[in-house]
Amino acid sequence: MASTAPPSVVMFYLDEHVSPAVAAYLRRYAIDVLTAQEAGRAGLAISDADQLTFATGTNRALVTRDRDFLNPRIVPQLATGQHAGIAHLLRSTSVGEQGRYLRFVAETETPANLTGRLLFLQPIPTGTFPDD
Questions:
Q1: Which residues contact 106 (CB under 8 A, 6 or more apart)?
Q2: In degrees rounded to 5, what are phi and psi of residue 70?
Q3: Closest C-alpha among 79, 80, 71 to residue 47
Q4: Where are the strands (E) in 11-113, listed by range?
Q5: Sign of the torsion angle spanned by Cα atoms 104, 87, 18, 106
Q6: Dihedrals φ, ψ of 39, to 5°?
Q7: Could you report the per-residue pLDDT of 20-72, keeping only the tens digit for each?
Q8: Closest Cα to residue 14, out of 29, 32, 28?
């Protein structure tokens, strides 16, 4: 019988605006990532609210660079907190910075702590990880 318990580790769903190189970076550290392309949800004009519903339904925090995910008129789950978390990345930051931030989130947060939260990319200082 399949377990219905929530996951104990953070998993991410990267929308189509996030570089596949970010997924590759995270996978090097055994972080569970699913991209919109892999899920067959890229390039189909799926609404942002539906993308967030999908991410939440698969127990994944959504990762995006799309500012529409900051607008509760476009993504009503923002107002209700009914989502598994959203990490918003800045377009002006490098893939490496984006990956390091998400790695930090995955290693320091739990799915329960991310529920209903909106996170914004923060610089992660060198020396944070043992392999820095």
A1: 9, 10, 12, 26, 29, 31
A2: -100, 0
A3: 71
A4: 12-14, 33-35, 61-64, 86-88
A5: positive
A6: -85, 0
A7: 999 999 999 999 999 999 999 999 999 999 999 999 999 999 999 999 999 99
A8: 32
Residue with tokens 């200082």: 125
Q: Which domains does the chain have, with CATH numbers?
A: 12-120 (3.40.50)
Amino acid letter for position 83: H
Residue 61, classed as helix, strand or coil, is strand
The residue with tokens 């990532």 is 33
* Amino acid letter, 86: I
The pTM of the full predicted model, rounded to 2 decimals, is 0.91
